[in-house]
Amino acid sequence: MNAGSVAVVVTEEIGVPSWGLYELSIPCTVFGVPQPDLADPWYDLRLCGTRDASPPAPAKETGLSLRTGHGLADLASADTVLVPSVPDACVDEGAPMPRALITALRDAYDAGARMVSLCTGAFALAEAGLLDGRRATAHWTHTGQLAARYPKVQVDDSVLYVDDGDVLTSAGLTAGLDLCLHLVRRDLGSHVANQLAKRMVVPAHRPGGQAQFIDLPVPATDDRSLGPVLDWARANLGRPLTIEDLARRAAVSPRTLYRRIQAATGATPLQWLLDQRLRRAQGLLESTSLSVDRIGQLTGLGTANNLRHHFLKRFGVSPSDYRRAFPRA
């Protein structure tokens, strides 16, 4: 397992909008703060400006310009290239993106870099042709524009992020943090990702997708009563749990519990349980030498064949391949 170098693109010559600082700060926080007790060496973070050594241009009303220590030439030597966002004008007004940036992105991909975008950064990857024929996402308010402008891209507005191997895209704002923690999980294992998430006071994984935010950003139901029920379910994943079991625990009807869990998590109760079982299986595969059959029993997935079926469908790899990719420390 290896952290490697992460080059983050900063389009400072057009001006970084104030809200865009959030997406820029996410990779800086995840990859730029050393965590020697979790992994040493940690990531080598580079902020790469699109004007190289030129002085920054004045920012527009609600933005600011930044001076960086690296330029576009440094993208090609990075293990991971990340585009947090692009200027609003490039998305909403059709303003052209810097051609030097698009060329640099293509060169970095050809050199073997893993390409990542957060929110509207997907427009830069799409402009470079790196999303052609691939499934990708962006913030749901921009996915329609992305699909219309780049018809070769298979745009999915229902997910928090898409992992297509060497090219990854995320929805907006907090979904960018979900994707960055996913990258840490891929690179350094679930234990490191989980511990880092705890330090950042965020969940290591959020079930459901951004579809849960499109029509109902804030659930209409008060889900505080769900906490003890969901905690109990996580502690009893080895049991053959049903929605009736959870409803009895919550002292509500199965129909009411169904609505509350779906409103709070974006998933049905059975989907949520399956996700928790698969996450538990990941941890056991990484941290123990237990057989796949035993892990299936402990996680409530039953037989080894059933675990393999759901694991492959959810993560795209078999439990055995996953274990080989994340050997125990």
Write the layout of secondary structure elements.
Blueprint: E1 5-10, E2 16-17, H1 20-32, E3 44-49, E4 63-64, E5 70-71, E6 80-83, H2 88-92, H3 99-110, E7 114-117, H4 121-127, E8 135-136, H5 143-149, E9 154-155, E10 161-163, E11 167-170, H6 174-188, H7 190-199, H8 211-214, H9 226-235, H10 243-250, H11 254-265, H12 269-287, H13 292-298, H14 304-315, H15 319-325
Parallel strand pairs: 1-3, 1-6, 3-5, 6-7, 7-11, 8-9
Antiparallel strand pairs: 2-4, 10-11
Mean pLDDT: 83
- How many strands, which pairing sense, and closed or not: the largest β-sheet? 7 strands, mixed
Radius of gyration: 21 Å
SS strand fraction = 5-15%
Number of domains: 2
| Count of strand segments | 11
User: Which shape, going by the Cα principal axes?
Assistant: globular
**Helix count from the secondary structure assignment:** 15
Can you tell me the CATH class of the largest domain? Alpha Beta
Can you identify the CATH superfamily of the largest domain? Answer: Class I glutamine amidotransferase (GATase) domain
GO molecular function: DNA-binding transcription factor activity; sequence-specific DNA binding
Organism: Actinoalloteichus hoggarensis
Pfam family, one: DJ-1_PfpI
Keywords: DNA-binding, Transcription, Transcription regulation
